[in-house]
Amino acid sequence: MAEQEPVVRYERSGRTAVVTMNRPRYRNAQNSAMTYALDDAFYRACADDDVGAIVLTGAGDHFSAGHDIGSPGRDADVDFERRAGLWWGHVGKDGGESRFAREQEVYLGMCRRWREMPKPVIAGVRGACVAGGLMLAWVCDLIVAAEDAFFADPVVRMGIPGVEYFAHPWVLGPRAAKEMLFTGDRLDARRAREIGMVNRVVPRAELDAAALELAGQVAEMPRFGLALAKKAVNQAEDLMGRHSGLDSAFGLHHLAHAHNAEVGSDSLRGMDAKGMKRAAEESGR
Ligand code: ZN
Question: Which of 10, 160, 166, 209 is a good FRET partner for 280, with 20 to 30 A between their CA atoms?
C-alpha cells in the first residue's frame, strides 16, 4: 500500500544532515521501503562534502518499534534492488533459503553497511527503540536519548535469540545483554546511559536540539580525522570479536526461524505485532 508521505525525510541543518524515519502512525516500523530510503539518505549525506555529521531520528513519539511485522505497508514479499551484498533475491525462493537471503540483505548486511559510513552518525531516540529499532540505534556512533526513551529486544518470546544484528554483548556488556534477552524487559534511558549504551539523556523537549548541537560540535572536526577515528574504534570492536560474533549469532537466529517454521505455522512462532503486545501484557510488562 502506497503511503502519502516519504517514509524517510532528509533535511539539512548547517553542516548536519538530519535523517528522519517517517512512519509515525506505525511507530516507525521498518519495512523494506524504509530500509532503502534510509540507505539513499545515508548515501546522499556521505557523498555531500558540505555534510560533516548525520543525525538519525524518528518522526512522532517513537524512534522505531522495530521491523514491520504487520502494518499495511509491510513489504516483505517485494524484491527491491539489493545493495548490501551479492546475495540473490529472496522472492520466489523457499524456506530457509528465502529467509536467509532476505535477512542477509535487508537486516545484517544493511546494518553493517551503515555502521561503515565514514561520517559520524548520532541517533536521537525518544519513546520506543525496540528490536529492529535497536539495530538502527546501534549502527550509530553516538546515542542521545530523551528521558522517556526505552530499549528492548523481546524477540526471545518468538523463540528467537535476539534480533538479526546481534551487537548486544558489545554495546551492553554480557550481563546486561543477557538480562535484556532473558526478560524482554525495557531498559530505560538512564540505565542505558549507566551501562554505557547511551551517551547523553536529555528532557524530551530538548532531544532534537541536543542531538543537533552534538552533531554540530562533531562536524567541526576535520573530516578525514573523524573518519579515521571512527574506523579505529570500529576496528577495535571487531578485534574484540564483534564481526565474527554477529555472523555466528546470525546462524543461530536462522536456526530458530527454521525451527519455528518446522514445528509451527511460521518462522515467527505465530507472533505478529499484536501477538507480541499481548504476550508482553500477559507477562505483566
Ligand atoms: Zn529474522
Answer: 166
Low-confidence ranges of the chain (pLDDT < 70): 1-3, 284-285
Grid cell of 32 as nine digits: 523494506
Identity of the residue numbered 179:
E
CA dihedral for 241, 30, 150, 189, sign (positive or negative): positive
pLDDT tens-digit readout, 216-229: 999 999 999 999 99
pLDDT tens-digit map of 14-65: 999 999 999 999 999 999 999 999 999 999 999 999 999 999 999 999 999 9
Its pTM stands at: 0.95
**C-alpha of residue 223 to centroid of ligand 1, in Å:** 36
Query: Could you tell me which residues come within 8 angstroms of residue 206 by beta carbon, excluding any fewer than 6 positions away?
Result: 146
Closest CA to 63 of 275, 213, 207: 207
Q: Which residues contact 135 (CB under 8 A, 6 or more apart)?
A: 107, 111, 163, 164, 165, 167
CATH superfamily of the domain spanning 8-208+219-283:
2-enoyl-CoA Hydratase; Chain A, domain 1 (3.90.226.10)
**What are the CA-CA distances from residue 250 to residues 39, 160, 247, 255, 278 (Å)?**
21, 10, 5, 9, 27
Residue boundaries of the structural domains of the chain: 8-208+219-283
* C-alpha of residue 64 to centroid of ligand 1, in Å: 17
Q: How far is CA 255 from the centre of its chain?
A: 21
| Ligand 1 center to 260 CA (angstroms) | 11
CA–CA separation, 51 and 144 (whole Å): 20
Instruction: Show the cell assigned to 39.
Output: 540507505
* Ion ligand 1 residues within 5 Å by Cβ: 103
pLDDT, tens digit (0-9, with 9 covering 90-100), for 54-84: 999 999 999 999 999 888 889 988 889 999 9
